Amino acid sequence: MNSIIDIGARRELFVDRYLIQNVQGGRLKLHYPVSQGVAIWYDTPWESADGHSESFYTTVLKDRDIYRMYYRGHAYLTCYAESRDGIDWTKPSFGLIDAGGTTENNAILTHKAHRGFCAFVDTKPGIPVSERYKANVEDTDGLIGYVSGDGVHWKKLQDEPIVPRTLPNHFDSQNVMFWSEIENCYLLYARYMTGSDRIRSTARATSADFIHWSDPVPMEYSDTGSTTPSAQLYTNQTHPYFRAPHIYISLPGRIFFERLVGSGDEAYFGANDGTPRTRKPGDCSDGVLLTTRAGTRTYDFTFKESFVRPGIGSANWTTRTNYPALGVVQTGPAEMSLYVNRHYEQRSAHLERLTLRLDGFASVNAPLRGGDVTTKPLTFAGKQLELNYSTSAAGSIRVELLGREGKPIEGYSVGECRALIGDEVERVVTWNGSSDLSSLAGKPLQVRFHMQDADLFSFRFAETASPVTPQ
Fold this sequence. Notes:
This protein is mostly beta strands. It has one helix at residues 265-268; strands at 5-8, 11-13, 20-24, 27-30, 34-41, 48-49, 52-53, 56-63, 66-72, 77-83, 89-90, 107-110, 115-121, 133-139, 142-148, 154-156, 163-164, 176-180, 185-194, 199-207, 217-218, 220-221, 232-233, 238-241, 244-250, 253-257, 283-287, 290-293, 298-299, 329-332, 335-342, 350-357, 362-366, 371-375, 378-380, 384-402, 423-428, 446-462. The strands form 10 sheets. Strands 2, 3, 4, 33, 34, 36, 37 and 38 form an 8-stranded antiparallel beta sheet that branches. Strands 8, 9, 10, 11 and 12 form a 5-stranded antiparallel beta sheet that branches. The chain is globular.
């Protein structure tokens, strides 16, 4: 077997074709998040001007037993909200900033000419407690670094930019930074304008210490084979997926200029009270799903369709709305949430929460007549195979392991596999009543999933062996 991929005990998602050798009778399927209503309203004087909110550039992160949210308020303020479950949010008052004529507000920082505050929890081993939280803000000369010990009280790391402005129209957006445990360095995914047509895209840089950064290098896109994406991607929102940190999920806001619903009047005269908005109509936008893997400079754009559609009502088709926030977080035993800015510059401006099942961005899908997917040759380090899957009452999934020349390994053929039916996030596969795969660990093989009316979202070879299950 050539080009054997060592997946160890990692969880692998079907958000790209990285592990797929072929699919027969099935397809890769994009799944759509479901609205759970308003997470927060942007309805305070320090979040809007004359009731027209420009709150934007939102970051949501899970920090141990608390969820934190950072977003732009009015006049380049950074505002803060928090939650115990990622569902119900509060806006604490810290008395730090005089905004809207009062210090009783949730503003925690003012940037004057700066914008795009973007924070993360620094998980690099050995980081001082006083610098456990880090952030960047765009300044005239580049990105200014900030640090905090509690995620609320912030200070500049230094007056000079940690990332100087070196590329065309660099940083005019939300610029994402995080510590990658897989790459063992800090990563930056920043706004970048490419080509003579000035297409909005993303550049990548690395750092060992958060202060000294490599020169940003433009990312490439799988659908064009170049550094120019097939659409204007205003933000990038790239971050490690919490259940598979070697896979970076990206949820850009995709913008279409000069594309309006109807005459455009609905986009100018606010969908709420007929009050003209401060920004004239000129575009509409949605959210899309891209992925990239640790150590690579290519975004995989497998699914070109909208991941987050604008939705019913003219309020959803106005300029700069429908942009996903940075961060996908777990909000239930089998649920994860993402957040989307809605009704930009309108009196009804808010952040909406949407949900998916864990790992549920995309799946390998087969109809009732059947289909199968075969992986590329791989090795693993584990003792059992776990699937995240869903079937109909009529459907099923069976798994066989293939050895040399693609022939089933004795004891692990499809006929010896107990059919999986149901809808589970973690279900162990058995052959002849046993799940133990320790004898195959480290040996090259392929995995073939035989499916009927089913979706397979992810799989992994886990370390813990399961007890024998009766056939």
